[in-house]
Write a structure and sequence with these properties.
It is a single chain. The protein is built from 5 helices and 13 strands. By secondary structure, it is α+β, with helices and mostly antiparallel strands. The longest helix is centred in the first third of the chain and has 10 residues. The radius of gyration is 19 Å and the shape is globular. The two termini are 27 Å apart.
Length: 241
Amino acid sequence: MCVITYKPANVTISETDLYQMWQANRDGAGLAFFEGEKVVVKKGFMIYEDLLSFVNKHQNKELVIHFRLATHGAITEELTHPFYVSSNIDRIVSLENEANLNSILFHNGIISGYGYHDISDTAHFISEVYSRIPKKDTRVAVLKLTGCKYVLMDRTGISFVGEFSEYKGLKVSNTYWSWSRAKNTYSGTGWKSYSTYLENNGSLVQYTSPKTKFFDYEDNSDFEYVLDSKTQKWEKRKNKS
């Protein structure tokens, strides 16, 4: 579950919230803002401190920030969002500011039927479908059919597709990253779903992902299940809190 965050120019995103969003979606980040009518893209943040430094230098700007949790495609700088609107994959995922491609797309969700081993579902969908639709109104209508959430940026401004939540002056595509306690159930072989949660005292639990060892809690339980990095077996241990 990725998250898209819209920050108005008169709102400051706190380091705590930025860090929690990153912890829950640690497969890279990217953002965009306006300079006049030009859309400026800065993506490929794979280290949190680099993102934090850049955001703090641009807190006075209207920003759209995307935090990725990969479901399709490799974990690379190029597959962080946003993506340029083009039929050419290389240009879609470009890390450079494409002067002639001043329309970009951020995505939160999974687009069924798109994506393969080294290309994300979003980039694939843009290449095969979205970029081939000439009118913006029609593009928006097609995006709505996917059931996902999007932010579009071009010379005319910012458009939101799907339901976004208000959070401390921000608009966010979801608030899963801010949950205070795990509500997953343990099946004996692994958790049924993956996310990052906070303990009741506000301290961050280790990042959780199907690809890494993680710490998580059963709902209303005094125990934590830990995946041992050496044995790769699940152990039930007493909660440290």
